[in-house]
Write a structure and sequence with these properties.
- The protein is of the alpha/beta class and 106 residues long.
- It has helices at 56-67, 86-92, and strands at 3-4, 9-10, 18-25, 28-35, 44-52, 71-81, 97-103.
- It has a single domain (3-103), classed as 3-Layer(aba) Sandwich (Rossmann fold), CATH 3.40.50.2020.
- It is built from 2 helices and 7 strands.
- The protein has a 4-stranded parallel β-sheet.
- The chain is globular, with a radius of gyration of 14 Å.
- The chain starts with a strand and ends with a strand.
Length: 106
């Protein structure tokens, strides 16, 4: 199994040919993007992030990978704010999720 790890960045407007996804945050909206040539069709991509709360950023990252005709191999988060439901939402959508630490979000 091959995993491709690439950096997904906040919208920069650098003029490159990109896929972008707008998404909701707990406190507003945001956009992330990836260059269209960042992933090859069929790549399996492991998404690693420091924190999951409601899961909006994680879902947006998954959309970018899927738009790129690649597959999300799974998610790994260092901290899961479990009572905000992000991990549960990803699991309900069929994604594999691992968390290193669980903490309440409130």
């Amino acid at each position: 199994m091959i995993f491709v790890i690439k950096l997904l960045v906040a919208w920069s407007g650098d003029g490159a040919d990109v896929h972008s996804v707008d998404f909701e945050l707990e406190y507003g909206t945001a956009k992330i993007e990836v260059h269209k040539d960042s992933f090859d069709e069929g790549d399996k991509v492991l998404i690693i992030d420091d924190l999951i709360a409601t899961g909006g950023t994680a879902e947006a990252a998954a959309k970018l990978i899927e738009i790129s005709k690649s597959k999300v191999a799974g998610f790994i988060f260092v901290i899961n704010l479990f009572d905000l439901g992000g991990t549960d939402n990803l699991v309900k959508k069929g994604y594999s999720v691992e968390n290193l630490l669980d903490f309440p979000g409130h």
